[in-house]
Write a structure and sequence with these properties.
There is one protein chain. With 977 residues, the protein is an alpha/beta fold. Helix 21 packs antiparallel against helix 22, helix 29 packs across helix 41 and helix 34 packs across helix 36. The radius of gyration is 29 Å and the shape is globular.
Length: 977
């Protein structure tokens, strides 16, 4: 055991517990996957594809829904062969299989009680076809990621769910998710050209193959005949045909797509339609080919405020007639709750309860067409009585991209913003339904009355243009009376929707566990029986996703409701939506932010010291705390701004011994000596072989602690010059602060030319904006070293020192402080603030801290002449740039230096995080895998970023040499001769 192994008890929950929860994982499951299931699947697939310990099972047990079912085992499938092998095994052993990708499903579709198959990790990728007219997309690809690639071709996917940042195309098709603009014409059913899927039997079908029906008939004759028999029965019943067609005139994802039997002429064509919205009950969608749509880049939007919900609903058809692509509704409660979303006007909190807003958007291919739309919209506005209850309301159309993005951010955060403001400890249920658009106002009023009558906070939002409404219910699943109240509401709601409005109980979220018991209420006995027969024909052994679409238990929607025990305050609002997961550097290695919170909640459900808690605590140190990059990009993705990275840093602090804290504080107090020693050590290391250094540091890691001693990497650069460039304070336009990392480490090996510090000084002078480097910068730091590791005392020492020094250097904030590393800019500008004394917090407020990218783009470029450009450059935007909002500046500066600038579509946090990539190099390797694949797929003349340790991380990931874009800017603008 290492000498300084942290005490795992420091990670046990310290909050008061109210006794074991009724839905806790039972002690008998503490050992994880039982035998022989574990051994058999390991022998079949390999140990690396079988997740079996209790921590893995618990983190996969939750999705964005109010349900929780713990799988027996999790399989991480790598290819179709793995999927077929699992299905064959399940058939032979009488087991059941559920596929899970993003886990953003709102009704438990991504949960299983037996074998759960992860089809996200190895299933991402997009191939653009026909110059963007079509796209071949793998099922683990998020909608947003696919659209980033398609945007370069002026195209976009039809489905646009609010969860596009996280939801994957496999799930979108399986649920027929649509979104803000898709309606009934742009959804998966209408825009899916073909797909490849694996049937429960293991048969693989590619609907695009010319001989697909012949192959299927040979492999599955009974299935083919069964589908054609159902088709004949439906077509022989004119009343049923009319009913089916009528049901899909409005949005409807409840049950199976019976219109597939009318739209498809052959078994393969029928299956192509049935797979859409089948929720994983008919097969695994291995690949999709979409017909894409034009990306109309000319946009005009307005957020219009009405005195009442009925007034807003009455305006919807007017905007539909004017050609609006989207008309979104938000009631007063929704608007007020959304103030928790960054960027939303805070005075919305004062909006009257009756106020309702419509977000109306027009999109056009060109300026002239957009002007026509705006003219039509102006005529509509003249007929409306709008209100301006708070100062931020404008009730005007705008083309400003930032303003429009803010409107959509507020709208898309409906579930998480409203859900995040729910009472602590309550479960959140998200429902959606559709009614004929002409009945929208009555449906809204009836829903709000129903919510109030059953004691739920009334809130509604939705795609008003399509008669599609969403609402939330919060209740305590641990209280039987609350569950009964929820059950009574659901009974009344379903009857109201079906009997009064003839609506769809599920418009775009798919049936799921919550509506399965009410399927027959909506569809009737005849149509529901046909759905059961269809399931029997395709999956006669019931292997796939039982009880998710079809369930004869009238109380099935009350089974598996999850309790939400209170956890750390910073994470308690989490509704487990999963929006944070794609951006998390460790999402393919260990855990995600959502899973880190899910595991804490399960600890809280347990009795102290239970076998399950023991297993979870033991795994949490590495899986959650050590392999968190601490980059806090999860906060940017989370609609309510939960910073799980900050929580992990707090846990690191909890694990420190008093001696470790004292040593860290001592290092901060004597950082000038530490800095000098570090530079000398790097210089000395440059004379020793990488192999020896790696061996020595690996031995030290085993002896001391892997999370304390970094492993030497060959990519670690040599030492920086001992002296910084000479500058003058007189006439300086800014104070230049070379970050400590750039004072310790030099530039890329073999790259000739000025250092980063020399480059910044030279290019600033060249632009007529000279900078001054204070002579006493040595011994100061942005404090990120201590902040990222959770050393609070050392953090406080350095945070206050740098602010006091910066105050003096900048003459009390009169000059800007230019920082040459983005993470250090973020640290000084924002992260030091909580650790400052009251006096220093006042000083900090007067400082102007400017990242070197912003300095270069805004202050230098307008005054520089470019004399030479390289052909191509690939850039790595850092997570700190994203926090600062400066990532666009990296491209701006790079474009001044290169004819072609490429930002990889999969660019994300490199997870090097100072030295975390040396403490856990597997974290950086996993986080950068997709970005590195793109970078190494072709040659570039330069690899640019603006943060030295991130550059080292990318060097390690790609084998290429990254350096600061400021160094390239100096070369590009250096006078000739």
């Amino acid at each position: 055991m290492p000498l300084l192994e942290p005490n795992p008890d420091a990670l046990r929950p310290r909050l008061a517990r109210g006794g074991p929860s009724p839905d806790r994982v039972q002690d008998g499951q503490a050992g994880g996957t039982p035998e022989p299931l574990r051994a058999e699947l390991t022998a079949l697939l390999g140990a690396d594809k079988v997740l079996w310990n209790i921590s893995d099972l618990v983190r996969y047990a939750s999705d964005a829904s109010p349900y929780r079912f713990v799988p027996q085992v999790v399989v991480v499938a790598e290819d179709i062969d793995d999927v077929s092998a699992v299905l064959s095994y399940a058939h032979g052993k009488g087991r059941q299989v559920v596929f899970r990708a993003a886990g953003t499903s709102l009704n438990g579709q991504a949960q299983g009680e037996d074998i759960l198959v992860d089809v996200r990790k190895h299933w991402a990728g997009i191939e653009v076809l026909d110059d963007g007219a079509r796209a071949r997309i793998r099922p683990g690809t998020t909608v947003m990621r696919a659209n980033v690639t398609l945007a370069r071709h002026g195209r976009v996917l039809g489905p646009d769910p609010a969860s596009a940042i996280a939801c994957t195309l496999g799930g979108v098709v399986a649920n027929n998710a649509s979104g803000m603009t898709a309606g009934t014409t742009r959804n998966s059913y209408r825009t899916l050209a073909s797909l490849t899927f694996v049937l429960p039997s293991g048969t693989v079908v590619d609907t695009a193959e010319a001989d697909a029906d012949d192959r299927l008939a040979h492999a599955e004759p009974a299935l083919c005949e069964g589908l054609l028999e159902i088709k004949r029965e439906i077509e022989a019943d004119p009343e049923l045909v009319r009913r089916i067609r009528a049901k899909y005139e409005i949005k409807n994802t409840n049950g199976y797509r019976l219109d597939a039997f009318l739209d498809g002429a052959t078994p393969v064509e029928i299956l192509r339609g049935l797979m859409v919205g089948s929720e994983g009950t008919f097969g695994f969608i291995a690949e999709t080919v979409f017909d894409t749509l034009p990306l109309d880049r000319q946009v005009s939007s307005a957020l219009l405020f009405f005195p009442s919900l009925r007034d807003a609903a009455a305006a919807v058809p007017l905007f539909n007639e004017a050609g609006a692509l989207a008309v979104e509704l938000m009631d007063g409660n929704t608007l007020r709750a959304s103030v928790s979303v960054q960027g939303v006007p805070q005075d919305w909190a004062e909006l009257p309860k009756e106020t309702t807003a419509l977000l109306v958007e027009f999109r056009a291919p060109d300026e002239d067409r957009l002007a026509e739309f705006e003219k039509a919209a102006a005529l509509v506005l003249e007929r409306l009585e709008l209100v301006k209850p708070v100062a931020s309301v404008t009730n005007a159309f705008t083309r400003d991209a930032g303003t429009i993005a803010g409107y959509w951010k507020a709208r898309k955060a409906f579930v998480t913003a409203v859900g995040g403001s729910r009472p602590s400890g309550t479960t959140l249920i998200t429902e959606d339904f559709a009614v004929p658009p002409s009945q929208l106002a009555d449906a809204c009023s009836a829903l709000l009355d129903l919510q109030t009558r059953h004691g739920f906070d009334a809130a509604v939002a939705g795609h008003a243009a399509h008669g599609n409404l969403h609402f939330l219910l919060a209740f305590d699943a641990a209280k039987p009376a609350d569950v009964e109240r929820y059950a009574a509401f659901m009974d009344d709601f379903c009857r109201l929707t079906v009997e009064r409005f003839d609506g769809s109980l599920k418009a775009e979220h798919a049936t799921g566990r919550n509506i399965a018991p009410f399927l027959e209420l909506e569809w009737g006995e005849r149509a529901t029986a046909l759905m059961w027969r269809t399931k029997q024909v395709i999956d006669p052994d019931g292997v796939l996703a039982p009880r998710i679409v079809l369930d004869r238990d009238p109380k099935a929607h009350l089974r598996g409701l999850k309790t939400i025990p209170k956890v750390e305050e910073i994470a308690d609002p989490c509704i487990e939506c999963g929006f944070c997961e794609p951006t998390c550097p460790s999402h393919d290695l260990t855990t995600t932010p959502r899973q880190r919170i899910v595991l804490r909640r399960e600890m809280m459900r347990q009795s102290p010291g239970s076998p399950v808690e023991e297993g979870l605590v033991e795994a949490y140190g590495y899986d959650a705390v050590d392999t968190c990059a601490g980059d806090s990009t999860c906060k940017l993705a989370c609609p309510v701004g939960i910073d799980t990275g900050m929580m992990m840093k707090a846990f690191r602090h909890e694990r420190h011994s008093p001696r470790e804290e004292r040593v860290a504080a001592l290092a901060a107090k004597n950082f000038k000596v530490v800095e000098t020693s570090a530079r000398l050590a790097v210089a000395a290391a440059d004379k020793i072989s990488d192999r020896l250094l790696t061996a020595v540091t690996r031995a030290a890691r085993k002896a001391v602690r892997p999370d304390l001693v970094p492993e030497w990497l060959p990519e670690v650069p040599g030492a920086a010059a001992r002296r910084l460039p000479s500058t003058s304070r007189s006439g300086a336009s800014a104070v230049y602060y070379p970050a400590c990392v750039n004072r310790i480490f030099g530039g890329p090996e073999g790259r000739r030319g000025p250092s980063l510090a020399q480059s910044v000084v030279a290019v600033s002078a060249r632009a007529g904006k000279p900078v001054w480097i204070p002579p006493d910068v040595a011994g100061t730091c942005c404090a990120t070293i201590w902040h990222s590791k959770g050393y609070d005392d050392g953090n406080a020492v350095m945070a206050n020192r740098i602010v006091e020094a910066a105050w003096g250097w900048t003459a009390g904030g009169k000059l800007p402080l230019v920082v040459d590393a983005s993470s250090c800019t973020l640290g000084i500008a924002h992260e030091v603030v909580p650790y400052l004394t009251d006096t220093n917090r006042e000083l900090h407020a007067e400082l102007s801290i400017v990242d070197s990218l912003v300095w270069a783009a805004d202050e230098l470029l307008p005054h520089l002449t470019v004399h030479r450009k390289i052909g191509s450059a690939v850039v790595h935007p850092t997570c700190s740039m994203r926090h600062l909002g400066d990532d666009g500046m990296l491209r701006t500066v790079a474009e001044a230096c290169a004819e072609e600038v490429v930002v990889p579509d999969d660019a994300g946090c490199c997870a090097f995080a100072g030295d975390r990539g040396m403490l856990h190099k597997e974290l950086t390797e996993s986080a950068t895998a997709r970005e590195a694949a793109m970078v190494t797929s072709r040659a570039f003349d330069a690899h640019l970023s603006a943060n030295r340790m991130c550059e080292v991380g990318m060097d390690h990931a790609t084998g290429r040499s990254y350096y600061s874009v400021l160094m390239e800017l100096e070369r590009a603008t250096r006078p000739t001769g």
